[in-house]
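Course assignment 3, question 2. Fill in each field.
Student: A.L.
Task: Predict the tertiary structure for the chain below.
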Amino acid sequence: MVLVIVASVASANSQAKTQAQAKATYEHSLTELKSDPANADLRQRTLQLGRNYSNLTRNKKGVTVFDEVALMNDISAACAGATSLPSVELSTPSSKASIEDRLSRLAELKIQGLIDEDEYKLRRQRILDEI
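Answer field:
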């Protein structure tokens, strides 16, 4: 009986430690994201770390829609300091990049979720107007 209690306490301590480590790793990634809010790879990594942490808080039963919304709110808040797009080439006609390169880069930004459909259309039209 005593052995079962000791094993239960040890298991609970181990789970609490794992959860605390996951939380610290997620929060550290959010801090890094504040320093580099336009880094799409870092955003993805932060989201995955958040999902891992959320899963642990739910006894490894998965991540809910509410968790996803909370994670996206955290990531959006961390990225709130991003005041410009990562590439200035998109809007500067004197850029050395070709029209094709600029359109390709613009499409990449849209796919990565760094710009929305309206911004994509606006900037695409600006690039095409330079022809």
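Instructor remarks: Residues 2-81 form one domain. The two ends are 81 Å apart (CA to CA).
Grade: pending
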